[in-house]
C-alpha cells in the first residue's frame, strides 16, 4: 500500500502548537504568513453576505480574517484536531471534515462567491494543483474567484536561492513555481495571476475565462 506523505495525523499532532509556529513568521516557510493571508482577503475583495469557502482551514486564521468582512463561511480540513481548534476560535463557521485531494466533498453548497485557501496546495504536485483549481473554479458563482496563498517562488532560481539560505530547515514539498504554474493554469483554460508576498510566499488568483 502506498504511504501517504502528508497524512492527517501529522496535522493532528501539530494543531495545539500551530498558531505559535506560524504567527511569529520566524521559520521557513512562514515568512510573510500574516501578509499572505491579508493579501488573500484584499485580492478576494470579500464583501458582507458573500458565501466563502476556506479549503484546509487549519486553525481558521484565514477564515477569521474573512469573517471580519461579514461573509458567510464554510471550511474544510482533513484533520479533526485542527478543526477542533478552528471551531473554538470561529464558532459561527460551517465545518466539514474532508480531504481536498479527493475532489469536491458532498455536503458543501454547489457554488461559492469566493474559495480561498492558505498553505495547503503545496501538498500536491502541479498537475493535481491544476485539476483541483479547475474543479474548484467550476464551483464558483458568476464573477467568483479562487484565491490561494501558499509557499511559492516566482521561478526555480528564486526557490534555489531560498533553499541555499535556509539549509537544513528546507523541507521537500510541492512548492509553487509561479511562472510554471500560471502557464499550466492558463493551458487548462483558467485565468491566473500571481502576487509575490515574501521570498517564499505569494498569492494566486484563479478564475474561469
Ligand atoms: C500549514 S496548515 C494551513 C492552515 C491554514 N489554512 C492557515 O493558513 O493557517 C495546512 C492545513 O491543511 C490541512 N490539509 C493538509 N492536507 C490536506 C488535505 N489533503 N485535505 C484537507 N486538508 C488538508 C492540514 O490539516 C492543515 O490544517
Chart the SSEs and their pairings:
Blueprint: H1 8-14, H2 18-23, H3 33-44, E1 51-55, H4 61-67, E2 72-77, H5 80-89, E3 94-97, E4 112-118, H6 126-137, E5 140-153, H7 156-166, E6 176-177, H8 178-187, E7 190-198, E8 201-208
Parallel strand pairs: 1-2, 1-4, 2-3, 4-5, 5-6
Antiparallel strand pairs: 5-8, 7-8
Helix pairs in contact: 3-4
Bound molecules: S-adenosylmethionine.
Report what the structure shows.
The relative contact order is 0.17. The radius of gyration is 16 Å and the shape is globular. Strands 1, 2, 3, 4, 5, 6, 7 and 8 form an eight-stranded mixed β-sheet that branches. The protein has helices spanning 8-14, 18-23, 33-44, 61-67, 80-89, 126-137, 156-166, 178-187; strands at residues 51-55, 72-77, 94-97, 112-118, 140-153, 176-177, 190-198, 201-208. The N and C termini lie far apart (39 Å). It has a domain at 49-112 and 125-146: Rossmann fold. The protein is built from eight helices and eight strands. It is α/β, with parallel strands linked by helices and 209 residues long. The mean pLDDT is 96. Bound molecules: S-adenosylmethionine (SAM). Residues 6, 11, 22, 56-58, 61-62, 77-79, 82, 99-101, 118-120, 123 line the site of S-adenosylmethionine.
Amino acid at each position: 500500500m502506498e504511504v501517504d506523505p502528508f497524512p492527517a495525523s501529522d496535522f493532528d499532532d501539530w494543531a495545539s502548537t500551530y498558531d505559535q509556529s506560524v504567527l511569529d513568521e520566524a521559520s521557513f516557510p512562514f515568512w510573510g504568513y500574516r501578509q499572505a493571508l491579508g493579501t488573500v482577503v484584499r485580492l478576494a475583495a470579500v464583501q458582507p453576505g458573500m458565501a466563502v469557502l476556506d479549503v484546509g482551514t487549519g486553525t481558521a486564521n484565514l477564515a477569521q480574517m474573512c469573517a471580519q468582512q461579514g461573509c458567510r463561511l464554510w471550511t474544510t480540513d482533513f484533520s479533526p484536531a485542527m478543526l477542533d481548534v478552528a471551531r473554538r476560535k470561529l464558532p459561527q463557521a460551517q465545518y466539514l471534515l474532508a480531504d481536498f485531494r479527493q475532489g469536491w466533498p458532498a455536503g458543501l453548497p454547489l457554488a461559492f462567491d469566493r474559495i480561498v485557501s492558505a498553505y495547503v496546495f503545496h501538498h500536491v504536485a502541479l498537475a493535481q494543483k491544476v485539476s483541483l483549481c479547475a474543479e474548484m473554479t467550476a464551483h464558483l458563482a458568476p464573477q467568483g474567484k479562487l484565491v490561494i496563498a501558499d509557499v511559492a517562488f516566482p521561478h526555480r532560481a528564486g526557490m534555489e536561492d531560498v533553499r541555499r539560505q535556509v539549509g537544513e530547515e528546507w523541507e521537500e514539498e510541492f512548492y509553487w513555481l509561479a511562472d510554471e504554474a500560471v502557464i499550466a493554469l492558463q493551458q487548462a483554460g483558467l485565468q491566473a495571476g500571481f502576487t509575490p508576498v515574501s521570498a517564499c510566499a505569494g498569492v494566486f488568483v484563479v478564475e474561469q475565462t
